[in-house]
């Protein structure tokens, strides 16, 4: 296929906003926009059962979206016209769907079972994937059992992952999410920021003799990661005093063996991956080594099985029951038709504390694009802004705006039916059967209900509210949300959840006809930072050729910086 970003030849190649299917949705919006979720639910007593779908252990309730059956039909028509099925197949077939970098985006191969086939350029990559997984598992077993000794003969008790972006956010999110499954006598930490504080605070009070650094960088050229890795190396050598120590205290995860060797890490201690794995799609590759060290190989494989179950569902389920397709198309409806600029991700699970941050890179680095695959400016909004916090904490901070502010903020609620840490509710009058988890989930259900249905003037007045306060206590409702439920936060459930979002991002990118797998937008800042770094130090002020604001800021910094 010459240009993988263009829809297949059987689909019309019209500009998105002139496609008949897009225009039909705009027409439909006229009828849908004034409709309230109260009416939609009142008209169909089974809506909350009907507008649901289930796969890979995840249950999606999308009934609280401002849609009817016709909306869905039109969205599926749009997806078909944009060549969703063909492009999905192209991705699974290892075609170069990342056209601007001429690469495949075959992260689905990272979780393909041993013995299956997935080709890139005619080469079956599944055996390569499993060879690395096996090496990771062997190394993990050695570290977790204490067989792997540090330079002075002590076992490893601290693992510090050094990486940034996809080489940090996935591992840290997964470690936090699966902490319940972790070996508690191995403590896993993460250094990402080039701010020296991150390294200093993370390694404070760690014993270098018991510390293993996992340096993660796909390219092994990233300034932050290499700088922190050098700091780690110096920290280690200062205490252990011997170059030979590096081999026992440093491993690397990268696609760049030459860079790893140049840094001084023996490539025997390197775990590889491939250019067909994007950074933000890499937490299930060797980039997940710190996750595996924490939770063990068996749990890591269970996570991969969860990813794979969602992949298979995405690949084979009809569009109408396909969770990533539904999530992706509803995101398009909310964004491009209802005009919502953001999506709030609200996990009712403390362990998912870093999930919104992880999703920010996955969604915004993927779909924050201003041109189509063939370089034409888009005339519609692309990726919305993702943000969020675990419930119930967010309820006491920003939910006010979601309930009563002037903006429409669609929400993704995520919850689990069984707690990992049961804790009976205590206190006067507490229901003896109740667990704190019941209160957590009661809050989730209450929030999505309140957002959808609100409170009418009549209801507020019936509560005896003084007239002057009625407008303040009114809840308009009609705020859309999805609810994703799983039985329990297991490695399998986490894998399925991440794959759900990965593929939902893909669905959106396909409809928008953008390249969801490149990230040119981060380059300019990087280049300017390198140039500017040289101007901040040195005895004599260099000739500054920036704009007057940047020049003045640099001069002020030079005068004030710690010499
Ligand atoms: O921020 C840009 C980016 O390239 C991300 O896409 C990537 O995850 C991150 O930098 C880190 O890159 P690397 O793994 O090559 O160090």
From TrEMBL:
Gene field: pgi
Key word RNA-binding present: no
UniProt catalytic activity: alpha-D-glucose 6-phosphate = beta-D-fructose 6-phosphate
Positions of region (Disordered): 539-563
Record-linked Pfam families: PGI (PF00342)
Taxonomic lineage: Bacteria, Pseudomonadati, Pseudomonadota, Gammaproteobacteria, Lysobacterales
GO biological process: gluconeogenesis; glucose 6-phosphate metabolic process; glycolytic process
Listed name of the protein: Glucose-6-phosphate isomerase
Subcellular location: Cytoplasm
Coiled coil: none
Bias (Basic residues) ranges: 555-563
CDD domains: SIS_PGI_1 (cd05015), SIS_PGI_2 (cd05016)
GO cellular component term of the entry, any: cytosol
EC supergroup of this enzyme: isomerase
Alphabetized Gene3D superfamilies for the sequence: 1.10.1390.10, Glucose-6-phosphate isomerase like protein, domain 1
GO molecular function, one term: glucose-6-phosphate isomerase activity
HAMAP family: G6P_isomerase
Keyword Nucleus: no
This protein's UniProt keywords: Cytoplasm, Gluconeogenesis, Glycolysis, Isomerase
Pathway(s) where this gene product acts: Carbohydrate degradation; glycolysis; D-glyceraldehyde 3-phosphate and glycerone phosphate from D-glucose: step 2/4; Carbohydrate biosynthesis; gluconeogenesis
Main location: cytoplasm
Protein family: Belongs to the GPI family.
SUPFAM superfamilies, A to Z: SIS domain
Enzyme Commission no: 5.3.1.9
């Amino acid at each position: 296929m010459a240009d993988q970003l263009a829809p297949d030849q059987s689909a019309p190649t019209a500009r998105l906003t002139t496609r008949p299917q897009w225009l039909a949705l705009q027409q439909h919006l006229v009828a849908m926009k004034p409709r309230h979720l109260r009416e939609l639910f009142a008209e169909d007593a089974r809506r909350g059962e009907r507008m649901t779908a289930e796969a890979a252990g995840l249950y999606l309730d999308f009934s609280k979206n401002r849609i009817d059956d016709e909306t869905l039909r039109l969205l599926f028509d749009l997806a078909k016209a944009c060549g969703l099925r063909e492009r999905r197949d192209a991705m699974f077939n290892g075609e170069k769907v990342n056209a601007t970098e001429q690469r495949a985006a075959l992260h689905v191969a990272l979780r393909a079972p041993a013995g299956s086939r997935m080709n890139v350029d005619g080469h079956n990559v599944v055996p390569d994937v499993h060879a690395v997984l096996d090496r990771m598992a062997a190394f993990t077993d050695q570290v977790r059992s204490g067989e792997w000794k540090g330079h002075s003969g002590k076992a490893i008790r601290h693992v510090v992952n050094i990486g940034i972006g996809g080489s940090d956010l996935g591992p840290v999110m997964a470690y936090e999410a699966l902490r319940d499954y972790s070996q508690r006598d191995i403590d896993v930490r993460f250094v990402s920021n080039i701010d020296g504080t991150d390294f200093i605070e993370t390694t404070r009070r760690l014993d270098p003799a018991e510390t293993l650094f996992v340096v993660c960088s796909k390219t092994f050229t990233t300034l932050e990661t290499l700088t922190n890795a050098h700091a780690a190396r110096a920290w280690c050598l200062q205490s252990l005093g011997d170059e030979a120590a590096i081999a026992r205290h440093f491993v690397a995860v990268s696609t760049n063996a030459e860079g790893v060797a140049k840094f001084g890490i023996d490539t025997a201690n390197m775990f590889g991956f491939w250019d067909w794995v994007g950074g933000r799609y890499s937490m299930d590759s060797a980039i997940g080594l710190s996750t595996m060290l924490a939770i063990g190989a068996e749990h890591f494989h269970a996570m991969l099985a969860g990813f794979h179950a969602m992949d298979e569902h995405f690949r084979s389920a009809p569009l109408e029951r396909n969770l990533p397709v539904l999530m992706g198309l509803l995101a398009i409806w909310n964004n491009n038709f209802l005009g919502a600029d953001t999506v709030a991700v609200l996990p009712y699970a403390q362990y998912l504390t870093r999930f919104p941050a992880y999703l920010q890179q996955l969604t915004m680095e993927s779909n924050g694009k201003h041109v189509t695959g063939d370089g034409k400016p888009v005339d519609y909004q692309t990726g919305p802004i993702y943000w969020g916090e675990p419930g119930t904490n967010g309820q006491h901070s920003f939910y006010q705006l979601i309930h009563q502010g002037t903006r429409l903020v669609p929400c993704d609620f995520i919850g689990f039916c069984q707690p990992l840490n049961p804790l009976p509710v205590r206190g006067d009058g507490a229901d003896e059967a109740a667990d704190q988890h019941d209160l957590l989930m009661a809050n989730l259900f209450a929030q999505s209900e309140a957002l959808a249905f609100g409170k009418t003037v009549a209801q507020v007045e019936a509560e005896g509210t003084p007239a002057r306060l009625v407008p303040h206590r009114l809840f308009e409702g009609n705020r859309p949300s999805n609810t994703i439920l799983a039985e329990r936060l297991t490695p399998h459930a986490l894998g399925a959840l991440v794959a759900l979002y990965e593929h939902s991002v893909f669905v959106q990118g396909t409809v928008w006809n953008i390249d969801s797998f490149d990230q040119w937008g981060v380059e300019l800042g990087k280049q300017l930072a390198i140039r500017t770094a040289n101007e901040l130090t040195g005895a004599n002020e260099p000739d500054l050729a920036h704009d007057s604001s940047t020049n003045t800021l640099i001069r002020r910094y030079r005068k004030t910086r710690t010499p």
